[in-house]
Specification:
single chain; 256 residues; alpha/beta; 7-stranded mixed sheet; 4 helices; 11 strands
Length: 256
């Protein structure tokens, strides 16, 4: 698969470690703020988008709790999608002569996680890597330093860019890349994909409850999407963001 050209505007990543190891947040170096804006352009104001239909219909009467207080806002507000469906590309994994079903198991496990989230959020698998969310069969770099290096099973990272349609206003947008360690069992590949997709949908933080998909560490019996996960996601999509809104313009020196 050809390398994607990521604009290094805001290179943040959220990492999930192996069983019983824990999780960490990591930030990489970014370029000068707003370097992708053209003269006279400024970031949009914080505004609220309508909820996607399936999420608007979600209501857990028996479980009202969430962990929204653990979700981190960013400089552009919360990481909210506004154009649906959100497209997802899963990088194929080549089978080996000694394991001919490896690629099929990989796709089946990742697609299982996509289908589970699709019941509550509009996701659309696509066959080209120019998608909103790209899932790659890549083992994340080791975490820690020196003798404390630890293996990680997955990582999610996002970057900002400006979408410039020919016949419409330029909009502030984002995209996600998910790295999944491909040599895990199908159960753990699906669990890691489920967890990282939760981040990619906007839950930029972790739960402290082991029965939530966004729990900060993998567990021996990975949970399915919980009411707390969905309550958090719905509350998140009721917040303000600059993403998905047209850039604003301020007078340039030549216009004053």
């Amino acid at each position: 698969m050809p390398k994607r050209r990521w604009l290094k505007l805001l290179g943040l990543s959220l990492c999930t470690l192996l069983i019983l190891v824990g999780a960490q947040l990591r930030a990489s170096v970014s370029l000068a703020q707003d370097s992708w804006l053209q003269p006279g352009e400024t970031l949009p104001s914080l505004q609220t988008h309508p909820l996607p239909t399936a999420l608007a219909q979600w209501d857990a009467f028996d479980e009202p709790e969430d962990y929204f207080d653990q979700v981190r806002p960013t400089r552009v507000g919360y990481l909210i999608w506004s154009q649906f469906p959100v497209t997802v590309y899963v990088e194929p994994l080549v089978s080996t002569p000694s394991d001919e079903g490896r690629g099929d198991r990989w796709l089946e496990s990742v697609n299982q996680a996509i289908q589970e989230w699709s019941a509550y959020f509009p996701l659309q698998p696509v066959t080209t890597p120019t998608a909103d969310i790209v899932i790659q069969a890549i083992t994340p770099a080791l975490a820690g330093q020196g003798s404390t290096l630890r293996a990680r099973s997955a990582e999610a990272r996002y970057e900002l860019y400006v979408r410039r349609p020919e016949l419409a206003s330029a909009q502030l947008a984002h995209r996600f890349e998910i790295l999944l360690r491909p040599d895990q069992t199908p159960t753990y590949i699906a669990a890691a994909a489920r967890h990282e997709l939760g981040h990619a949908l906007g839950i930029w933080g972790h739960s402290s409850v082991a029965t939530d998909t966004l729990y900060f560490s993998q567990v021996r019996q990975p949970p399915t999407i919980s009411s707390r996960d969905l309550n958090t996601l719905k509350r998140l999509y009721q917040q303000q963001t600059r993403l998905g809104w047209p850039l604003e313009r301020s007078p340039t020196p030549n216009e004053t």
